[in-house]
Amino acid sequence: MLSVRLNTLIVSCIAGSALAGTPNLIINGSFEESSLNPGGSWSVLGGGDTSINGWTTVGGGVDYFGTFITASDGIHSLDINNTTSGGGISQSFVTQIGWTYTVTFDMAANMFGGPAEKIMNVSAAGSAEDFVFDYIAAGSTAQNPNWESHEWSFVATSTTSTLRFVGVSGSVYGAALDNVVVTGIPAPSAMGAIGLAGLMSTRRRR
Ligand SMILES: [Ca+2]
Prior knowledge:
Number of domains: 1
Strand content: 35-45%
Number of helices: 3
Bound molecules: calcium ion
CATH architecture: Sandwich
């Protein structure tokens, strides 16, 4: 009976840890590690730039903030637009086909110019969603941008997935981004296999 209870406990722990998701799969999700040091200002990065560890800029690139605007985590964040709309940043990472990946991030704005609504598109594995931050409605200031936390998820269709954050609107004053975290949750079939393995183990020991 003790072994049955022990097996049940082990299976519960495995299932519980799987449900809680993997550790953060993103490298440098807070943009703190870089060869650049913008100090109290910002650094302008064009497209294809890899100066921010783990990330590659896309489109027109991004502005890399130092303490110019208060970050949501650490001291660095991004203006997802550089000199025009359509800038952005991406990172590829290993994924398991069929698993669900939860993406959390903090969004605000470069509040030094319009339009009021900054739109940022988040995409991976063929799924995408637009997120909006209205810096006037939010009362953003450089000292207190009023960062908002968001959550989005996608199902992996390949053994590698590329997560992209792209500015849809905002002129040179785009959406601000910080604190990206991605965790993976096994597909329901994988969870069933864990449960079944536990059940079989329990029955064998009776
Ligand atoms: Ca940061």
